[in-house]
Task: structure prediction
Amino acid sequence: MVVSNNINNNNTTVDITVEKNTRIQYPQERYFIDQPNAPGSYLGPIDATKPNADKIPLVFQPYTVKDLTIANRFVVAPMCMFSSTDGFFTDYHLVHLGSFATLGAGLILAEATAVVPEGRISPSDTGIWKDEQIPGLKRIADFIHAQGSKFGIQLAHAGRKASVKAYYADLPESAYWKDNVVGPSGGADFQWDANHHVPRELSRQDIEETIKAFGTAAARAHKAGLDTVEIHGAHGYLIHQFLSPVSNHRTDKYGGSLENRARFLLEVIREVRANFPAEKPVFLRVSATDYVEHLDGPSWEIEQTVQIAKWVKEAGVDVFHVSSGGNSAKQVINAGPNYQVPFAERVKKEVPGLEVVAVGLITGGKQANEVLEEEKADLVAIGRAFLRSPNFVLNAALELNVKAKFSAQYERGRM
Result:
């Protein structure tokens, strides 16, 4: 099918005939202007007469790990948007992620992006399992870099939590793969809940292929120009499922002892590290606890998290991003401001040299800065607060008496 559009360009009307759903690239589509200082950079105090006005809040100081330098310590946490078809990043993602760059976020991490099709949480998830998905991602990376921010992606496999309905999607049954949902252990006992599918146990060949898929995904991220990748080992998805004795009852070398349960993660890290430039940092996100201490039997807890933090540092992880929960429908979470920060603080204290990201209901500038000033973490990641207010960084600047750089196009909005 073809469609014909009348396009007025500089007072000249032309007819363009294109295949349906083909995007037309216009001459000005990739127009950028110089941003000598990244939005969100510290420019000085707003009111120099206030006490300690000359002290730069730590959250507005630059941060460097390997070849990655960001203008401030604010990280946009990965957040699933369920706005993709066949894994492709779209104009929605360009606007969604790009807006955080124009408004001052130091580092932006794209949502959990599947390394294989069956690793998606839902059919509407983004993917990085084929080369054709690189250009759309690179377009976003180019835009974010032009603003002065840095960009990474979360490499993911949902495991037994795959092939579920996105909360606003209306897709046919044929879009799902309920008979190809996998986990470290299989059968009805390992179904996450009634809304998820019964997983089958991954074979050794499946495991090897999945590990390779993480590596090739990292290589594609580099080709797209990304500054970092984050391996998703949290929230009850596949890597977390291997780590936790709640979801891993294997009797081979990938199950049983902590060393065996961590083997899959460590092999993924080594494969990613082998396929991603050594000068670029690798992040890892983990859940520090399953929150099921009330149940009989062993679970995943902070002590094991601290131990694997030491192992992953040796394997090539540069930054450890500490979240929690997601591996059991029976979890009991008492959420509140900073509720996950103590987990990050413990890792930071017990694993010297490993950079740590804290997350968990951090909703304001002073709160974020206190986490860093009290040496509980090196970076702070913000999720839903960025959805409520994409200009979170600029609001935090006002709260901290910081004159932060606006993008050149937004500078008139300062006053």
Remarks:
- The mean pLDDT is 93.
- The longest helix spans residues 204-223.
